[in-house]
Amino acid sequence: MTVLHVDHYEYAGTGGNGVPLLLIHGWGMHGGIWSGVAEQLAQNFNVYAVDLPGHGYSVGRDSSRHGEDVGMNPDLRIDSIVDELSAQFDESINVCGWSLGGQIALRWALRHPQQVRRLVLVASTPCFVRLDDWKYALSVEILEEFAANLRQNYALTLKRFLSLQVRGSEQEREILAVLRDGLFSRGEPDLIALQSGLEILRGSDLRGALPEVKQATLVLAGERDTLIPQQASQFLASRTPNGRLVMIRGAAHAPFLSHPGEFVEHVVNFLGG
Question: What value does the mean pLDDT take over residues 9-38?
Fold first, then answer.
């Protein structure tokens, strides 16, 4: 497989014979968050972990241009990211996305269906905010508060978001420590990218598009996730024609950190590695 120009990817694989698998991180993080499970998955796949524009090592001269070029329109923002990622690969791949990364993976499968073999959506949802006809989500006021606080103290805001992600997990303190240690290990994320990511979370609603997803889809959810209610995971799996749901007992919003062995087993079995 040829990987063309991109801001930053990390690669681990099986010498070129494994099935390609791309890992997409969530809001405010970077590809290094996958390091533990990436090493295990690399026994079966060629694994690529990306730093999304404005995150990790992808913060640089051009990292914020997405936000500047497309403003704060969430649909244009996510399509810009998807198109850039798609251009980096010259053959079909499996895509695994966590939280915001799951939204990106889902939009990728819809926008470039010939390129995505199978989908793994981790602690994700078709719609992150509560609406009149959608109760299985955060209130929009919470995301608006995060957006306002970003401008005042983005580091503290990110750490507060991490606390929400681990709340309820069997290993809450340990997982929170891992997330906090990794948060700025690749430098500080770009403020425009963080703001744009929140706009995607606040404005993207893919519920109506789920029946158009042709790829086999694994929805991996944490039983104790306080950000993504179980009903949202069930909806996502049931409305995707070839979807299946796996609920990991004792896990919250980051099951690949709290239950890495179980996570890897489910992914390998689903992707056929």
Answer: 81
- Beta carbons of 126 and 137 less than 8 angstroms apart: no
DSSP 187: B
* DSSP secondary structure string for all residues of 122-156: ES--SB-B-BTTB-SSB-HHHHHHHHHHHHHHHHH
User: In the 8-state DSSP scheme, what is residue 215?
Assistant: S
In a domain, 222, yes or no: yes
What domain count does the chain have? 1
pTM score: 0.89
> By residue range, what is the domain housing residue 114?
9-271
Predicted confidence (pLDDT) per residue in 206-258, tens digit:
999 999 999 999 999 999 999 999 999 999 999 999 999 999 999 999 999 99
Catalytic residues, by residue number, are 99, 225, 253
Residue 57 lies in a domain: yes
Within a domain: residue 4?
Answer: no
Tokens representing 121? 């959506």
CB atoms within 10 A of CB 37: 22
CB 204 within 8 A of CB 128: yes
